[in-house]
Write a structure and sequence with these properties.
The protein is mainly α and about 550 residues long. It has 25 helices and six strands. Helices cover about 65% and strands about 0% of the residues. The strands form three sheets. Strands 1-4 form a two-stranded antiparallel sheet. A two-stranded antiparallel ribbon has the order 2-3. A two-stranded parallel sheet has the order 5-6. The longest helix has about 30 residues. The chain is globular, with a radius of gyration of 25 Å.
Length: about 550
């Protein structure tokens, strides 16, 4: 009974601790009078300069979050107050199909708070729920795969602080990425003679699709089918592959039916819109500095792919331990990780190809480099959980052999890190402060010391909670340029200009600089469209406007 009670306590504690990361990331900034998201550059623009204070943060120019994501979410609350269904944005251009623009997330689960409360409060609630549910999904899947509660908590906490969820918390990619761990469990269930799991698979695809990123949905479908093939070849043989494939196809059909309310308006929008070239990334897949070091800054718009590909020094140390433990690991876990690792490597190579030779998708929702990196964060999470679980189960003889292999591989990894650091400093000329280098060294040293300490004192809580803490601190430091909070006074403040313009009515017109003025949050109509949605009739109007500027008066 005492042992059973301890297991219950461990399981409950591992779940409750998942609230820690959302609380630190969301509640603490809210108490400080800030929003837990980076919405930069607004008070530097003319309509809001009245709210500019001497101590205003220099957060760079406006980005897609400022121009599109926050304004489109704020419109959802306006539709509720007007007792209307969120079909149309009447404020930008000649009207924008809100439901047709998939990235507006009109039907996303994490957009529900925007229908109920004000946009600023809803933003904090939405991010809190997003981080919490991301951790719960990874924790639940880890528990289903048989990991101990502290190790399952570690998996959940590490998934909460991965780049797609933690760094890009306002991007549509994060809304869909929350549910991705469930696909790993769904694939396992379909391949282990649980054909009814197609229903859970269909629901997972629906949740990912409603997240607002059609590219991520396409990448998820391809990734799931690749997991089935990889598991067939490495884990389960040929027994249930046909049944699993049929379940996958059935899930796709039903998910498509449930997503029809979003897909059909989007298809109509594609027919009536002008193709806008996708933004390119300067991510170089072979640049080890991006993979290992926290080299991101808000002054450079590198796209999402570099952050998605970041592994970090602590995770690199765990990868060294996984290589050392591979031959000694549990057969089922090893094969499962090999299968998922093969899919991850394949997708990484595809992402590298997209980065080297960008593909012109002609406006269709085909995945780009960051979407092909979809499996990497989850593989790192479950690799870390598998390593910790196997490290705790080694006997004395095997642990000595594994330790020798680990120290040898760690020495090679250390040489790689030092070489990369020298190259960055000497060849590239990127100077870093001694404190920065101390942080890099501390991250790797702490992870290696924790592994060695666990060998002497093998406790699941020690390695589980310790790894989670190291991972959180590393991610908080690495992604700080993306997660910097924004003072409430700088988030679409009400000024004399916005009040007077709204009361005057009509539609604001002028030069194309108005594309940097997302006035729809204040209920102000304007000729240009900061959200970037361009319908064909609007493109014709803009061409006429260039020929006859007096039309804007």
């Amino acid at each position: 009974m005492i042992l059973f009670g301890r297991k219950r306590i461990d399981a409950s504690l591992s779940f409750l601790l998942l609230f820690a990361v959302p609380t630190i990331s969301v509640v603490v900034p809210v108490i400080q009078g800030k929003l837990p998201a980076r919405i930069p550059g607004l008070v530097m623009e003319a309509p809001w300069q009245e709210a500019l204070s001497p101590d205003a943060s220099n957060s760079g120019g406006v980005n897609e979050t400022t121009l599109s994501y926050f304004p489109s979410l704020a419109l959802l609350g306006q539709s509720t107050r007007n007792m209307e269904f969120p079909l149309w944005n009447p404020y930008e251009a000649l009207g924008v199909p809100l439901l047709g623009a998939w990235k507006s997330r009109a039907l996303a689960p994490f957009s529900i708070p925007f229908y109920v409360i004000g946009p600023r409060k809803a933003l904090a609630v939405s991010i809190f729920l997003k981080l919490l549910l991301a951790g719960i999904c990874a924790w639940w899947v880890a528990r289903r795969f048989g990991f101990r509660p502290p190790i399952a908590f570690m998996a959940g906490a590490l998934y909460q602080v991965c780049a797609p969820v933690f760094a890009y918390r306002l991007d549509p990619v994060s809304d869909g990425f929350v549910w991705f761990p469930l696909l790993a469990w769904n694939a396992n269930q379909l391949l282990t003679a649980h054909p009814r799991s197609w229903r859970a698979t269909a629901l997972t695809f629906t949740l990912i699709g409603l997240g607002g990123s059609p590219e991520l949905l396409v990448a998820s479908l391809i990734c799931f089918s690749a997991m089935l093939v990889a598991y067939r070849l490495r884990v389960r043989g040929l027994d249930h592959f046909t049944t699993a494939s049929a379940g996958f196809l059935l899930a796709v059909v039903f998910a498509g039916g449930m997503l029809a309310v979003q897909v059909l308006p989007y298809i109509e929008y594609l027919r009536e819109s002008v193709y806008t070239p996708a933004t390119l990334t300067d991510w170089s897949p072979g640049r080890l500095a991006i993979l290992l070091f926290p080299v991101f800054n808000r002054g450079q718009d590198q796209g999402m792919a570099p952050a998605f590909a970041h592994i970090g020094i602590p995770a690199g140390v765990l990868c060294c331990l996984w290589i050392a433990l591979h031959k000694f690991a549990n057969r089922q876990r090893r094969r499962r990780m090999d299968a998922f690792g093969g899919v991850t490597l394949l997708f990484y190579l595809i992402a590298a190809g997209y980065s080297a030779m960008p593909v012109n998708t002609q406006g269709f929702p085909l995945p780009s480099a960051q979407h092909w990196l979809l499996p990497l964060p989850l593989w790192l999470v479950f690799m870390a959980a598998t390593v910790c679980e196997e490290w705790l189960e080694l006997d004395a003889g095997t642990s000595r052999l594994a330790l020798k292999r680990f120290l040898l591989i760690l020495a090679v990894f250390l040489l790689l890190v030092v070489s990369t650091g020298v190259y960055v400093s000497v060849v590239c000329g990127e100077s870093r402060s001694p404190l920065w280098w101390a942080g890099v060294i501390a991250g790797g040293t702490a992870m290696a010391a924790l592994i060695l300490l666990t060998l002497v004192w093998p406790r699941p809580r020690l390695i589980g909670y310790g790894t989670a803490l190291i991972g959180f601190l590393w991610s908080a430091w690495t992604f700080q340029p993306f997660t910097q909070s924004t003072p409430l006074s700088e988030v679409f403040p009400e000024t004399l200009f916005t009040r007077a313009t709204r009361e005057a009515g009509g539609r604001v017109a002028g030069t194309e600089n108005l594309n940097r003025w997302p006035l729809s949050v204040h209920g102000i109509a304007q000729v240009y469209n900061p959200g970037g949605v361009t319908l064909k009739r609007y493109a014709v109007f803009k061409e006429r406007l260039r020929q006859y500027p007096l039309l804007a008066r």
